[in-house]
Amino acid sequence: QVQLVESGGGLAQPGGSLKLSCEAPGFTSVLHTMSWFRQAPGKEGELVASMSSRGDFIDYAESVKGRFTISRDNTKNMAYLQMNGLKPEDAAVYYCAAKESWWYSTYLYWGQGTQVTVSL
To answer: Are strands 68-73 and 58-60 parallel, antiparallel or unpaired?
Structure first.
C-alpha cells in the first residue's frame, strides 16, 4: 500500500518558519493533486493547501493565505509546505495527501503525519 512520508515538523516560535516535505516513494505523484491537511486536538481537520499535478491550480485555507506556500517537485515525487509567520493556532499534526484529480473529493493516499508545535 502506497503511503506518503512527511518530514520537517518540529518546534517553532511564533513568527518563525518551518518547511514540511512529503515524499511519495514508488508512487507517481506527478499525476496527482497534492494537499496538506492539519488536525489539532479538539478541532476539526482542515485542508490547508492544495496544488494540482501541473501546478495550475493552487488553493489555500483562508487562515494560512499569505503565510504558507505549497510547492512540488515532480521530478523527485516531492511536495512541500513552506510555513512562515507561524502562529500558535497553526500547531497541529500536518498530513500530506494525494488524489487523482483536482476535481475529485476522495484522497487515496495519506502520510502518517508530522507534528508542528508553535510556542515560545
So the answer is: unpaired
Q: How many CB atoms lie within 10 A of CB 55?
A: 12
What φ, ψ does residue 14 adopt, rounded to 5°? -55, 135
Distance of alpha carbon 54 from alpha carbon 86, whole angstroms: 27
Q: How confident is the model over 72-116, as pLDDT tens digits?
A: 998 898 999 999 999 999 999 999 999 999 999 999 999 999 999
Cα dihedral sign for 103, 104, 105, 109? negative
**Nearest-angstrom CA–CA distance, 90 and 102:** 25
Q: Which three cell numbers stand for residue 36?
A: 496538506
